[in-house]
């Protein structure tokens, strides 16, 4: 990969180092149910009672109105066994094909490709990064495995010390982090806590390219986008600031897609709904890797499974799986119940920088959807 030229721009470190406004749908309050089946099972007809039917009025109300001044627009797409509903508010496009920057939802694509490589025997969950990418991490650091990258248990330091006027290649960004005295060294010990960290997925993208000898974008396209038929989903090229299709929020300024395998992809609501549904059904992974999508590592604090899926338990007890993400003015999420009885894709365009206000809005949408 060639290094892109520097651009005058302002980078926000939280896209890499911290969970952004939508990085956790809700704090996990319980472990996965014991003895749960490995694959989703269809809900029975009797389960689809009045309480579980899609409540269009509640969903539209949860999107809010432009009058509250906190959001320029919002979109939600709800589907499942009992139908589908799509609604919008404000300046966002009502076209279901409208595209948006999905931010850290990209990580689901990255972890899926990595798990496919594990299934093919081209690497293992226990393979150290230092073996796959010699010289990428300091030699005196403890071994960091592929599974630790996927599940955010690597202990890698978060991003720091970068030049805000430079667009980094993945290798340059990782080097900047690992050589930064402010960032420190990885957390050590037998039970490394789970800490959400986008640097894990820059390294994981580099692993994918090293093992396959193909670009990350090509592997995502070959393994996921084309087999599932996702016409609006892609990894932008370096320097590609404009979306290739009409944007969900046409008024947002172009964004340099620097987050790459960590958070740089573009998609739309129908594509994300299909991708998550097929992932949870087992279409993309064989059983041994599929089980990892639903297993939490020990000492999980942020609710990411061993397969990199974000797990959350809603206040009413509903358990959902998926991923959230923010980039370029969009705050998004794609979640579904394990049996695919109900699924949700949302995208917000906040005017506020108050994370609590943003969280209140997407939690309200989730409550109406599930």
Protein architecture, described:
The protein contains twelve helices and eight strands. By secondary structure, it is an alpha+beta fold. The strands form two sheets. It has a six-stranded antiparallel sheet with strand order 2-1-8-7-6-5, sandwiched between helices. Strands 3-4 form a two-stranded antiparallel ribbon. A hairpin with a 2-residue loop joins β1 and β2. α2 runs antiparallel to α12 (355-369), α3 (106-119) packs across α7 (199-212) and α6 (170-178) packs across α7. The protein is globular, with a radius of gyration of 20 Å. The model is unreliable at 1-50 (pLDDT under 50).
Question: Could you write a compact summary of the structure shown?
Answer:
This protein has 370 residues and is α+β, with helices and mostly antiparallel strands. The protein has helices at residues 14-17, 56-63, 106-119, 129-132, 146-150, 170-178, 199-212, 216-228, 260-263, 269-281, 287-290, 355-369, and strands at 71-80, 83-90, 99-101, 266-268, 310-313, 319-327, 330-337, 342-350. It has one domain: Beta-lactamase, CATH 3.40.710.
Percent of residues in β-strands: 5-15%
In the CATH hierarchy, what is the superfamily? Answer: DD-peptidase/beta-lactamase superfamily
Overall structural class, as computed from helix and strand content, comes to: alpha+beta
**Intertermini distance:** 42 Å
Strand order of the largest sheet: 2-1-8-7-6-5
H/E series: HHEEEHHHHHHHEHHEEEEH
Q: Would you identify the regions where 5 or more consecutive residues have pLDDT less than 50?
A: 1-50
Q: At the third CATH level, what is the topology name?
A: Beta-lactamase
Main beta sheet strand tally, sense and closure: 6 strands, antiparallel
Total count of strands: 8
CATH class, please?
Alpha Beta
- Average pLDDT taken over every residue: 86
**Shape type:** globular
Based on the structure given, which CATH architecture is correct? 3-Layer(aba) Sandwich
Compute the CA-based radius of gyration: 20 Å
């Amino acid at each position: 990969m060639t290094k892109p030229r520097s651009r005058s721009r302002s980078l926000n470190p939280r896209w890499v180092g911290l969970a952004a406004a939508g990085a956790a749908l809700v704090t996990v309050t319980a472990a996965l149910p014991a003895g749960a089946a490995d694959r989703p099972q269809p809900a029975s007809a009797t389960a689809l009672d009045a309480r579980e039917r899609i409540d269009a009025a509640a969903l539209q109300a949860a999107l809010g109105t432009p009058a509250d001044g906190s959001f320029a627009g919002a979109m939600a797409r709800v589907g499942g066994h009992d139908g589908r509903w799509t609604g919008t508010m404000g300046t966002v496009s009502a076209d279901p094909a409208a595209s948006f920057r999905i931010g850290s939802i990209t990580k689901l694509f990255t972890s899926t490709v990595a798990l496919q490589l594990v299934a093919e025997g081209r690497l293992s969950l226990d393979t150290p990064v230092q073996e796959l990418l010699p010289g990428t991490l300091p030699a005196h650091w403890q071994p960091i495995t592929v599974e630790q990258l996927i599940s955010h248990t690597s202990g890698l330091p978060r991003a720091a010390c970068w030049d805000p006027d430079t667009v980094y290649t993945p290798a340059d960004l990782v080097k900047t982090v690992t050589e930064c005295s402010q960032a420190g060294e990885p957390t050590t010990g037998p039970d490394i806590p789970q800490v959400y960290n986008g640097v894990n997925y820059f390294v994981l993208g580099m692993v994918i390219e090293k093992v396959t000898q193909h670009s990350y974008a090509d592997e995502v396209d070959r393994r996921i986008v084309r087999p599932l038929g996702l016409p609006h989903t892609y990894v932008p090229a370096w320097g590609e600031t404009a979306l290739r299709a009409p944007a969900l929020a046409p008024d947002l300024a172009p964004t340099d897609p620097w987050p790459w395998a960590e958070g740089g992809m573009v998609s739309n609501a129908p594509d994300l709904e299909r991708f998550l549904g097929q992932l949870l059904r087992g279409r993309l992974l064989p059983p041994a890797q599929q089980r990892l999508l639903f297993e939490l590592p020990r000492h999980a604090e942020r609710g990411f499974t061993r397969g990199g899926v974000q797990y959350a338990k809603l206040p009413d007890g509903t358990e959902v799986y998926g991923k959230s993400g923010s980039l370029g003015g969009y705050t998004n999420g794609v979640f579904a119940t394990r049996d695919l009885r109900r699924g949700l894709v949302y995208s917000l365009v906040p005017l506020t920088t108050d994370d609590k206000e943003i969280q209140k809005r997407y939690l309200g949408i989730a409550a109406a959807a599930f």
